[in-house]
User: Fold these one by one.
Assistant:
Number 1:
Amino acid sequence: MKLLNFSDIVKAHHRLRVILPPTKILTSEELNKKLKAQIYFKMDNQSQTSSFKIRGAYNAVLKYYQDHGHFPKKIVVQSSGNHAQAVAYVGQKFQIPVLIYMANTVSPYKVKLCRDLGAEVVLCEKRSEANQLAQDKQQQGYFFIHPSDNDDVIAGQGTSAYEALKEIGEVLAIFAPCGGGGLIAGSYLASCELSPNAKVFGCEPLKANDASRSLKLGKIVGYEDTPHTVADGARTLAVSTRCFSYLKKISGIIEVNEEKIIYWQEQISKIFQQKIEPTSALGIAGLEQYLQCNISAQDQKFLVIISGGNLE
């Protein structure tokens, strides 16, 4: 498998910049004083469909058009919500039928958002069943867009860190949620040229710590069924094979307990007066843990990616 590089992130950014305005970067004096650091938040909760997933969805479809000279006739995905909504949005924009398989544990609100965008949503008993059904549809001519195990999705998701680092310059470290691993992989690739000395940390729920366990064991391990965490965007059964190649290059995975996820969701929502979904709190919770263990990193500059804001 050929790995992506920084140029792939740049190409994705060129595709997206016409139709996807850059999201804002915010900072908080109050929070900087509290944690003794210079923290910059990339607010992808303010993107189209309220999450970073729109970047990968757009890039995958636009790259398909670039390669084939036409859009796919129909698209299929499996997702816990934000990826599904992003693909449904892109499908509506380009008038492409979209079929979505989801586990029945997903947020009813996210199901409604997808159906409101014109997508067909099929609920399954288990996430593993949804995964298999979506992959099988490729035999019927569907263009399958995996939420993370797809080069064009990874490159698109990397444009979030790319935009941020272009604006704020080099940082000591980058913190972002880790579900399937696409956002972390893309962030790592973006940092290679724009902030080559930066550490990159994936942050995942302690109750859904498959990425952390996989890195410790040196092989991918996961769950048979959806893990129970409030961070629904990180309820993936396992990191993807493609993304695992990049996870082995980053500085590590930080595990966050449920209490900290809830605490930081409330705090960031209050500070910025914006909708922040629980998964988005993983980055700042991970940074807090990092700063507690690395006193010498105080007063340094950090990037935290706020991945989404889909709440009822």
Note: The chain has two domains: 6-52+152-306, 54-150.
Number 2:
Amino acid sequence: MIDLNTIWFLLVGVLIIGYAILDGFDLGVGVIQLFTKDEKERQININAVGPVWDGNEVWLLTGGGALFAAFPVVYATVFSGFYLAFMLLLFFLIFRAVSFEFRKFSETAEAKKKWDMAFAIGSTVPALLYGVAIGNIMKGLPIEIVDGKVVSKITFLGLLNPFAILIGLTGFAMFVMQGAIYLTMKTEGAHQEKVIKWANGGWIAFVALYVISTIATLFVAPHLFQGILNNILFWTVFLLLLAGIIYTPIGLKSKKYGWTFLASSVTIAAVIGLLAISLYPNLVPSSIDLEKFSLTIYNASSSQYTLKTMLIIALIGMPVVIGYTIFIYRVFKGKVIITKDSY
């Protein structure tokens, strides 16, 4: 029988997947904006995500809240160890957020270009930093438990290691692919042809980097492969990953952009799912002593009463978040139409 700790591990994973799929295309569109020169195309890009980006970030906030409630030791360790990195991340996310409104009320073309650049940079840096953070978790963090307390030896420069940067680039390519595929559903004509090229390029870069990252992980983080080959769940998710990867270029070529976006989303979910399966029951592996000092779903969790209470709250709140998300996307479905109220 699945215990409460495992249920919360799954719930946090679902929230992370939801955020990666939804805000992932926001970030990808922002990266594409950095290389878009035509004013009309830039306006369509930013209006493609303008009505939904803030709702997408609800998944990040909810995920952080769930982590704090269910696994407070992990929350404290990771957020304190990654403090400077997270401050940098928040700075760029705020920079991106204000760019929408400031662009809308800018009166000159030059001012609009500057806020387009703010949107682009505010998306590009987080798209890379998220993967760097995950890469460090995969590799293992320099933490140990002394007298029942977690002692962290994490440094900012230590986070910028080659393996983490490689994972960061892999996630970056994945978000660009997701963002470009999303834009295929929101654009038409010559603009659509351009984002199709971005989607194909993002797909190629992601697949190549994912293969390289997997090989590198065998050497840098071999603990992630212990026992997974005998896990039927691993092979199920792996097949989903292959299906998503294989269908993406096929869907783009056949112009079935909605199905292609679904395939890309399945790919993202499968990538995160495979990582979760490899980590379980660890949440933060220790690079000092994997067996002795790693934070797991058991030694870093809240009390059983807290987990039970929060699960009831989550079962009430999650349908609201999902329902809100579905409603928003139904309202703003279809191609982008520029009006006087657009960004």
Note: The beta strands are 143-146, 149-152, 282-284, 295-296.
Number 3:
Amino acid sequence: MPAPAPTARLPIELAPHVREGRYFAVAGEPERALNALCGGREVCPPPYSINRASFPFWIIEVIAEGSGELELGGACHSLRPGSWFTYGPHIPHRVEAGAVEGLTKFFVAVRSPEQPSLWREAGLEAGTAGRVHGETRILRTCAELLEEGVRDSPETSALTAHLYNVLVWRLGRAAREGRRQATIPPLARQTMEIIDREFATIPSLSALAVRVGVTPEHLCRSFRGAFGESPYQVLLQRKLHHAANLLRDGPWQVAEVARASGFEDPYHFSRIFKKFHGVAPSRLTIR
């Protein structure tokens, strides 16, 4: 299915095989020599694939859902929820969606004669990749940036520039933390991989502990020591991000989304969703 027409006039060429996209483009930050700021959210089913030797913009991409493969500057990376990467002029990159589920991603692009000074200040380098485990803040910032970017108000330019700054600084911190967590204990790594694959069918911390064969207390100590959050927090975040994406992509009934995200009681789901996202699921939409 061809991608729908963008909701903004973008200064960049969009990749093929995007099933659904929502985009924004606003003025950049002249004081940082950024003369364009644009981005969006794309649903990329297989056979989505890009393979470029270079790109005229400086790009940040963050995976919201699904899986895929990234080759960046000759190094290969698996893409999962929370994966992020950066590239720009003269940086070869190849991105492919997973053969079964595809991937959904946010991207933000700026045009600049050289790597943005903001990136250097935040410690974010072009041609790098990482993954944020328990990625609530990063994905929320991406979603807020898109929601503000598509608005038509006097404050839009200033607010999108601010949110872009927040995203860059948070990813710079994530890059530093990722280097410190290069060696993750096998139990914590296995648990995160199970959450990524099976979050919709795991109802509780106890069920997750049974799945990996340890007590809930032991699992919490190992997981929190590696990622700074409890496994149940990350499990719940994954469920609620998935639910938000289903509601945005629509059309779904709230009860259907609750079941598809692993909640048996739609009323309980609605209460947790509103507390987490700040809006009732019945009101969440990008259309």
Note: The chain has two domains: 20-180, 186-283.
